[in-house]
């Protein structure tokens, strides 16, 4: 356990904006290790993940592991893979799914945590919120075009669609994602996690 990372965790938990969540017994849900070489930046925990205190503890997480080509032990090893969603708390339900992560959350905490992980080689940007924050004006006109144009963001970032089962229509309409992009993603993940990355 890294004391600097845990100090930030406690600072987040006791931040005024999170007092109601702390009162419900929720802790900020993220995973960070000082020697992590890859970071997964998603949306926000679902209620199941928040309650269990385990990132990506659902069908989306299982699919994400398959796309990345890693087993669960690797996926959950903070010395290899960090998990920094755009908000570290379940945002609640809206009319059509979960409420989006708070816009002001990641700017407060991500840079400080990233600075404690100097060995990071690749950030996997899962979904539109992570892509909007990290790619900014470099994004394409929509998520599909941004993901299809993933090579423009390497070697630092790899944008992908969210692995939620609710995205089955998008995946059916874009077979290139699993046929062409996922193998490249798996190679990039292997490269990031290797002790001596290959030149791609």
Q: Concise description?
A:
The protein is an alpha/beta fold.
Write the layout of secondary structure elements.
Layout: H1 3-13, H2 19-23, E1 38-41, H3 47-52, H4 59-68, H5 72-75, E2 81-83, E3 93-94, E4 97-98, H6 105-114, E5 122-126, H7 128-135, H8 143-148, E6 157-160, H9 168-173, H10 176-193
Parallel strand pairs: 1-2, 1-5, 5-6
Antiparallel strand pairs: 3-4
Q: What's the Cα radius of gyration?
A: 16 Å
Task: Give helix % range.
Answer: 40-55%
pLDDT averaged over residues: 95
Taken from the alpha-carbon principal axes, the silhouette is: globular
Order of helices and strands: HHEHHHEEEHEHHEHH
What structural class should be given to the helix and strand makeup?
A: alpha/beta
Please list the strands of the largest sheet in the order they lie side by side.
2-1-5-6
- Compute the number of strand runs: 6
Discrete helix count: 10
CATH class descriptor: Alpha Beta
Q: Are there runs of 5+ residues with pLDDT below 50, and where?
A: none
Report the sheet with the most strands, covering strand number, pairing sense and barrel closure.
4 strands, parallel
Measured distance between first and last alpha carbons: 33 Å
**Number of structurally distinct domains:** 1
What is the CATH topology classification name?
A: Uracil-DNA Glycosylase, subunit E
CATH architectural name: 3-Layer(aba) Sandwich
> What share of the residues does DSSP label as strand, in percent?
5-15%
CATH superfamily: Uracil-DNA glycosylase-like domain
């Amino acid at each position: 356990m890294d004391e600097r990372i845990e100090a930030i965790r406690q600072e987040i938990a006791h931040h005024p904006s999170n007092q109601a969540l702390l009162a419900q017994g929720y802790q900020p849900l993220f995973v960070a290790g000082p020697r992590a070489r890859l970071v997964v930046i998603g949306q926000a925990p679902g209620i199941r993940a928040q309650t269990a205190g385990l990132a990506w503890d659902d069908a989306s997480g299982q699919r994400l592991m398959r796309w990345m080509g890693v087993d669960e032990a690797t996926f959950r090893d903070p010395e290899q893979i960090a998990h920094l969603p755009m908000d570290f708390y379940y945002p609640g339900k809206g009319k059509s799914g979960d409420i989006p992560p708070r816009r002001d959350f990641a700017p407060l905490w991500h840079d400080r945590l990233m600075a404690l992980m100097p060995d990071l080689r690749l950030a996997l940007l899962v979904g539109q919120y992570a892509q909007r924050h990290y790619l900014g004006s470099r994004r394409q006109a929509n998520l599909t075009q941004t993901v299809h144009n993933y090579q423009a963001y390497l070697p630092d970032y790899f944008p992908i669609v969210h692995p939620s089962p609710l995205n089955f229509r998008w995946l059916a309409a874009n077979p290139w994602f699993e046929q062409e992009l996922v193998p490249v993603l798996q190679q990039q993940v292997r490269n990031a996690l290797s002790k001596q990355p290959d030149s791609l």
